[in-house]
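[agent] plan:
  1. take the single chain provided in the ticket
  2. run structure prediction with default settings
  3. attach structure tokens to the ticket
  4. add a short note for the reviewer (M.T.)
[agent] executing step 1
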Amino acid sequence: MMPTLEWANKITGANAGEPGQLPVPALWAARIAQGRQFSAGGSMTPFVPILITLLVTGPIIMLVRYRMYIVIGIIAFLFVLQAVAARLEKRMIWPYGSPEAQPQFPDSTGYSARWIDDALKVGFSFLGWSPDLKGPRYRVCYAFLVSQERDCFVIVGVGTILSMTLRGTWIYTRATDGRVFYTTDNQACVEIDVARQWRSQLVRTGAFTELLQGHRDLLQDSGVTPQPFTAGREAQEFKSCREERYQSMSRNGLIAFTDGSATYWRYTFWGALKLAALNYSIGLLRGVTHGRIPRTA
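[agent] step 2 finished; step 3 output follows
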């Protein structure tokens, strides 16, 4: 009886099953293992698993990167747009006209009536309505009020700018160290000071008393010593505060006056870039935190 001859497998040197054959799963595993021997030293390079991973995850990674580039592009475009708008826009040192007894434009929303009534109830004095002087596109009126202690100068603005509704209130306090702190209820009413001398706080509320309390809390927490306005000269002294602010910004190269009387001004290139960066970052943070972070800017 002749002995049975078992052939060694060409791939592994092992014998499994019939002579010269491997089970199909083992045969595939052996083929893959054989294909992984790439380098001269015989190191194993897992090219098949890597290839499969790339085929599966590659399109996903490309899609994520594509969307990331789109987001970065949008952010960059908006930043440049803000900087260009700030550079080109001509602004006024004092955009408020002479105070009048009644507003030039009616407020159908009732916002100004509510907020002025609330201010009068807590001891504020009404100084009059001031029209916006920036042109016919600005159909806005501003009510001036002052606190009993003369430490808060209040402006309530209502109307439309290019058919867009404006409703907002500002509470200003000047400090003895030359800084000015103000609180507003509307992010659109915030004007970031690139010189960092006028500090703003956003308090989203529907009541004047809550806005006032938030402002007084800010003054206390910041250790501010208010410099009261002179009775009968509140508007004139507030105007002087604005004039001193823009004169300082001009000396620091942040703005440039466009007329000899220093009535109109524009941001310089550096000032526009700084404003865009501050507006974008601070506005985004306040938008997602409902004005809580940063508290002052």
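[agent] step 4 note for reviewer: The first helix runs from residue 24 to 35.
[agent] ticket updated
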